[in-house]
Amino acid sequence: MVQKKEDRRVVRTKKAIRSAFAELLSEKDYNDITVTDIAERADINRKTFYNYYRNTEDLVKEIECEACLNFDTILQDLKAHNILDNPELIVTRISSAIEGNMDYFRDFLIMSKNAALFNRIGDNLKKQVRLTLANQDVIDPLKAEILSIYITAGALTVYREWLTNGKKEPREKLDAYLQRLTIACVREALQ
């Protein structure tokens, strides 16, 4: 069955709603954002908002699902690579996923209400890395578990802090440093 492509007007309207929501997150607390706020910022009426979403929570759930799907797609073929030979792939993939979703990650991912999204992405990434490491005969399963937790939680937390603190360093510099740390961690685990 072929999936029907969404109408361009629908895509444009949803993009305006999401952009408005992201802007509002940088100005006020999630709990203080109303449908009226979003509609006014997106230059649409409330009825238009309700054509697509029941409420702000419905909007958040859709954004969460898409963010997780984007991360999963980017990380999916991580298993096909030997990350023991190329441990920097982990950081490269995380960085690519964040770069592709920068607008949402800046405000949406760092809001305290949405720790669940951060945890969900982290759990998916940890699982991918753990499975990849577990398939290598040269690393102890306990070390693989600890390494997957340490690398993924560490890298995601560093990126989250980087976004929260206004991206003071260029992302490329941060990526390079995290890659060196990841390589050092993997080498240590192999000893």
Describe the structure.
The chain has 191 residues and is mainly α. It folds into two domains: 1-53, Orthogonal Bundle (Arc Repressor Mutant, subunit A); 60-190, Orthogonal Bundle (Tetracycline Repressor, domain 2). 72% of the residues lie in helices and 0% in strands. It is built from nine helices and no strands. It has helices spanning 8-25, 35-42, 46-52, 56-75, 88-100, 102-109, 115-134, 141-164, 171-190.
Q: Which blocks of ≥5 consecutive residues have pLDDT under 50?
A: none
Q: Structural class of the helix and strand makeup?
A: mainly alpha
Number of strands: 0
Q: Count the domains.
A: 2
Number of helices: 9
Oligomer category: single chain
Shape label: elongated
Distance between the termini: 51 Å
Q: What fraction strand?
A: under 5%
CATH level-two architecture of the largest domain: Orthogonal Bundle
